[in-house]
Specification:
heterodimer, A: alpha+beta, Jelly Rolls, 2 domains, 8 helices, B: alpha+beta, five-stranded mixed beta sheet, 14 helices
């Protein structure tokens, strides 16, 4: 979660500009793509795009979903390109030579999917049914994980694409913008396009917004906001860097084939994932509804989660904790600025402080020799 | 305190005419019935619209029919005033309509012995009232939730959806935007002593005024101050067809004015007993007792009024809407959908399971969390205050943020495989199994010159007071009041929201 739409197009009527998105302006090729209710026909050389009013910065996750119908056409023919500023580029084309076969009574043609993030590329294969649309999803996160799924089923995974990248986006382009000289472009149909991004501040902001806290309407101008932002960035960079290393250690690049039908995540990775989600769930139950069992669930699962991290990368784990503890905290004046907020939310803040101290104790205890 | 007499005194003996030349029974009611979209629910949906009166009228018979153990489990605890001036917790049969006790301590329950609509006519029922059947999913499910699927099974599957427990009822209201704006601006301008603004949900705050004006695009001109109150004054003048005083550096958006003058908004409100979104989706999916969602159709009023002028009452029904608009969660999320109305296509609205957000297509819809908005850079204070409040190294916040980034999606799910509420002639190509097609009752609020919710006999009859009391009810539709994003709603009218969507979508009626 925490991803926000940059652009959603459902092709509800004949208007190209009937979209949901951040403030911006629709742009398009001339002539424009043919938009009809339920489906847009993208003819060769045509495209539409969206110029954002304000550049989106510090993007640490991109989630692209398209529902596309691409009837089988010529070998090597270009299908859509989806260009998310300089951050991500997705290109699809039929294979050359064209490989078409019957699968479950449906004609499907093989295509190559090229996904480039931060200059690194993954190339995967997708089967495109001649008569039916598919739901294609490409999801990247700054941990380095890049996933591709079709109709809700994971099809391919890369573990180290643009780790720790923070990207910027000014515009989006969907269609086939390339010159077609010498390259045959194929007509295809889009029924849905969704491009969402995760900015580095968004997840915590979302969590905080869900808690029963009272905030002042405004605070005096202060350098504290900048200092806290920098501190948070530094902390999250350390955590993302460590988690990227954990991901690389516990998973391997994978693409679904008949011989290799299931992705390869280590038991430690799967257990850590489950523990993390259960810890989060417990914490939110405790913070939102004051359920004591939520606190216990958080502590049990965060301990298990951190143990998994420690067991897989013991040295880096210890280094991570040391690095976190050595980060220079914002000065005392900033903490003083928060006093009113702390007083207004005394009960919840105190319980969160206790939980924070308990989390730190657990994290630190895992670096100490057993016995 | 809802002072019905003050509302009536302000609005005149016949009430404010918000439907122009259209009369209630002759035009508005058939129009609302004729163009009401087919409402498609997800097969998993437990709660269906019951109307505002359903929240009051439906629970008590279920409670009375239950055995004693079940009754006790359904009773609602309320802090009421004790004889010694303190408060004491008492249990009441659902539903409970309660208001602040005039003595200052605890709450006063108005409908313990009379769970009819009569208590809504009482003067105590204002913005601080709460209508609740107990703030819990299990209570809502016991009183309003579907019992079995259409084929009598306990669990739904596509094509065999949960059947509605009670008849489906929606509320429809037609407003000509010009008259509605004029009324809203008049009420907004009235002294508090003259109009009980917070206690009348039929009135809507005038938060579209900013759309009618814009700064001129001239770098050499520094726009003068043009505060909200002055903008309201200017809009009043425009609606009265007088020349407004516009400060230097500003101009009137004539296309927006023209659209407001020509727009007729037919609003459909779906009132539910419970939003149980979190039964289907993970955090940040929420839950709250009571829910108010809906959709609207936007017409060109000139086309609607032409046949009336020509004496062709039936001709009104041949005027098709121009646009259909839905409501998706919070207005500030700007995720409402709009599309040009297709007279040859299906007129359908899809209700997302649990959340009841309305969409124009079936399938999975990306949900933007309640904490987010499209406005970047807003609300940064909570973020850094939360970090600082943890004191010392905020590992907890870092881990939580890191995990939240990976939390699986919450989506709004809509479907063609559930209950469809509407008429047989609304189902093109027999795409709905007749077993899944259920009727729907549309209750149209009279807002016309010939029949009006504010109009009354002298003295008003109990029925007139009950109707106005109910339809203007401005209290909460439930008792959920603990968490941001999870608060029981008030029955807020949405024409303003839909008009804003119309304008921001770039559409105009000129």
């Amino acid at each position: 979660m925490s991803y926000r739409p940059l652009l959603i197009h459902e092709f509800l009527d004949r208007r190209l500009d009937n979209i949901i998105g951040v403030p911006g302006e629709i742009i398009s090729s001339i002539p424009r793509p043919t938009v009809r209710p339920g489906s847009s026909s993208i003819e060769p050389g045509r495209w539409f795009g969206y110029a954002l009013d304000r550049q989106q910065t510090n993007v640490i996750g991109i989630d692209v979903k398209v529902r596309i119908h691409a009837p089988t056409q010529a070998a090597g023919a270009l299908l859509p390109e989806i260009i998310v500023g300089n951050a991500m580029r997705i290109g699809l084309r039929f294979t050359d030579p064209l490989v078409a076969e019957m699968v479950d009574g449906n004609l499907v043609a093989r295509s190559e999917l090229h996904v480039t993030v931060g200059g690194q590329e993954a190339v995967w294969t997708i089967n495109l049914p001649h008569r039916l649309p598919i739901n294609l999803r490409v999801l990247w996160h700054t941990s380095g994980q890049l996933r591709m799924s079709v109709d809700g089923k994971l099809q391919a995974y890369s573990r180290a694409i643009a780790p720790l990248a923070r990207l910027s986006i000014t515009d989006i382009l969907v269609g086939n913008p390339q010159p077609t000289d010498g390259i045959q472009a194929a007509r295809f149909f889009l029924q849905y396009v969704s491009i969402r991004t995760l900015q580095e501040d968004e997840a915590l902001r979302e969590v905080v917004a869900e808690l029963p806290l009272r905030f002042p309407d405004e605070l005096p101008e202060s350098r504290c906001a900048q200092l806290v932002t920098q501190y948070r960035r530094d902390l999250m960079t350390l955590l993302h860097g460590f988690m990227g290393a954990f991901v690389r250690e516990t998973s391997t690049d994978w693409e679904r084939t008949a011989a290799d039908p299931e992705p390869s995540f280590s038991p430690a990775a799967l257990a850590a994932h489950t523990n993390a989600l259960d810890a989060f769930d417990g914490l939110m139950r405790f913070a939102r509804r004051h359920e004591a069992s939520g606190r216990a669930q958080y502590l049990t699962n965060i301990a298990a989660f951190l143990s998994q991290l420690r067991d897989v990368l013991p040295d880096q784990y210890a280094q991570l904790l040391n690095a976190i503890e050595q980060l220079p905290l914002p000065p005392a004046e900033c903490f003083e600025l928060a006093e009113g907020f702390v007083d207004d939310n005394a009960e919840l803040v105190e319980s969160m402080r206790q939980l924070n101290r308990a989390t730190m104790r657990i994290a630190r205890s895992l670096t100490e020799p057993e016995g | 305190m809802a002072d019905l007499a003050a509302m009536r005194a302000f609005n005149g003996a016949e009430g404010p005419n918000l439907t122009g030349m259209l009369r209630h029974d002759a035009h508005v009611v058939p129009l609302a019935e004729s163009w009401r979209p087919l409402i498609r629910f997800h097969e998993d949906e437990r709660f269906h619209p019951v109307g505002l009166d359903g929240l009051e009228l439906l629970p008590r018979p279920v409670y009375v029919a239950a055995n004693r153990n079940a009754q006790q489990a359904l009773e609602v605890s309320v802090e009421v005033a004790a004889p010694d001036g303190s408060t004491v917790t008492r249990r009441f049969p659902p539903p409970v309509l309660h208001v602040p006790d005039p003595g200052g301590n605890g709450r006063l329950v108005l409908n313990e012995l009379d769970a009819s609509l009569a208590p809504f006519a009482r003067g105590e029922v204002g913005a601080d009232a709460v209508l609740t059947h107990g703030d819990a999913f299990r209570r809502s499910n016991a009183l309003f939730g579907s019992l079995l699927t259409v084929s009598g099974l306990p669990d739904p599957v596509p094509g065999d959806p949960r059947a509605p427990r009670h008849p489906i009822r929606v509320i429809a209201e037609l407003r000509m935007m010009r008259e509605a704006l004029s009324l809203y601006l008049a009420i907004d301008n009235a002294p508090n002593s003259e109009y009980p603004m917070p206690d009348d949900s039929l009135w809507d705050v005038v938060r579209v005024v900013d759309m009618f004006f814009e700064e001129v695009d001239d770098p050499d001109v520094e726009p003068a101050a043009f505060p909200d109150s002055a903008q309201k004054d200017a809009l009043r003048e425009i609606l009265a067809e007088r020349a407004p005083a516009i400060p230097e550096g500003w101009r009137v958006r004539t296309d927006v004015v023209e659209t407001a003058l020509n727009a007729a908004i037919l609003n459909y409100d779906f009132i539910y007993a419970q939003n149980d979104y979190d039964q289907y989706e993970p955090w940040p999916a929420n839950h709250h007792e009571g829910d108010d969602e809906g959709c609207c159709l936007i017409f060109d009023r000139r086309e609607l009024e032409k046949p009336v002028q020509g004496g062709d009452d039936g001709g009104v029904l041949r005027v098709a809407p121009l646009f259909i608009v839905t409501s998706v969660h919070l207005e500030r999320q700007r995720a409402d959908r709009i599309k040009d109305f297709d007279v040859f296509g299906a007129n359908e609205v899809f209700v997302a399971r649990g959340s009841h957000a309305t969409y124009l297509t079936p399938g999975s819809h990306d949900f933007m969390s309640f904490g987010a908005s499209f406005d970047e850079g807003v609300n940064v204070i909570p973020d850094w205050l939360a970090w600082l409040s943890l004191d010392g190294v905020p590992l907890l916040a870092g881990l939580v943020a890191g995990i939240a980034e990976h939390f699986r999606d919450s989506n709004d799910e809509t479907s063609t495989d559930g209950i469809a509420a509407g008429r047989e002639d609304q189902v093109p190509g027999d795409v709905v199994d007749p077993d899944r097609l259920v009727p729907i009752e549309t209750v149209v609020t009279p807002l016309s010159a010939d029949r009006n919710v504010y109009a009354a006999s002298s003295p008003p009859t109990p029925a007139e007071d009950q109707t106005l009391g109910l339809l203007s009810y401005a209290g909460q539709l439930g008792a959920t009041d603990a968490k941001l994003g999870s608060v029981s709603p008030v029955f807020g009218r949405k024409p303003r929201r839909f008009f804003r969507k119309l304008i921001t979508s770039g559409r105009r009626i000129t």
